């Protein structure tokens, strides 16, 4: 195990700067119901969550894809803690550039 | 010309009840940049507009498709006035069922 992991800091995959987040990419991420369920769960629980804790009904590789899309759109931050990926909603950052969007999309039950 | 048209009431294509509007369908409508530009224009100008006045750079049949998608998602109302289709944003209705969404998606410049 590398030092960073021993310290619990983990590896960090690439994330866009919040200023580079595009509405187009955010909407493409949120139009998928599985990805929206992830965002909703992070939004309502308001805590960091490991990928395995969302109870998704898709394969692990599909789930990984969905988390990657959310991260690349700027909606979540991911960091490794040991072998787990922890996910954090970039709530205040998104609220700054797209005010009201998360509340509208994730702040209530879905269809 | 039929009586309704002579009276200027026009024909009315089918619209969903606002209670039947689904977040999934609304996001699928808004994920397209052309459709988003239509919604933004209706949102910011705050007036009814004929289909031909949006300056869209797509063919007429493609434009008609985009307007149909927006209508079927519950985002706009359409009515015929003579041979023109007039479009109205269902602003207060959408605000009621998806508060904050239109402001977040259409209330500012795009990417």
TrEMBL record, chains A, B:
Species of the source: Glycomyces rhizosphaerae
InterPro entries assigned: ArsR-like_HTH (IPR011991), HTH_ArsR_DNA-bd_dom (IPR001845), HTH_MetalResp_TranReg (IPR051081), WH-like_DNA-bd_sf (IPR036388), WH_DNA-bd_sf (IPR036390)
Residue ranges crossing the lipid bilayer per the database entry: none
The keyword Disulfide bond belongs to this UniProt entry's keyword annotation: no
CDD domains assigned to the protein according to its UniProt record, in alphabetical order: HTH_ARSR (cd00090)
Boundaries of every HTH arsR-type domain copy: 15-109
Alphabetized Pfam families for the sequence: HTH_20
Keywords: DNA-binding, Transcription, Transcription regulation
Entry keyword annotation includes NAD: no
Full protein name: ArsR/SmtB family transcription factor
């Amino acid at each position: 195990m590398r030092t960073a992991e021993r310290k619990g800091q983990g590896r960090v995959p690439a994330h866009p700067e919040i200023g580079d987040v595009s509405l187009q990419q955010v909407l493409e991420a949120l139009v998928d119901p599985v990805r929206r369920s992830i965002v909703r769960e992070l939004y309502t629980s308001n805590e960091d969550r490991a990928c395995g804790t969302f109870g998704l009904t898709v394969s692990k590789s599909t789930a990984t894809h969905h988390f990657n899309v959310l991260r690349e759109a700027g909606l979540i931050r991911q960091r490794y803690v040991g072998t787990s990926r922890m996910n954090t909603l970039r709530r205040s950052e998104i609220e700054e550039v797209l005010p009201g969007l998360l509340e509208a999309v994730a702040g209530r039950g879905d269809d």
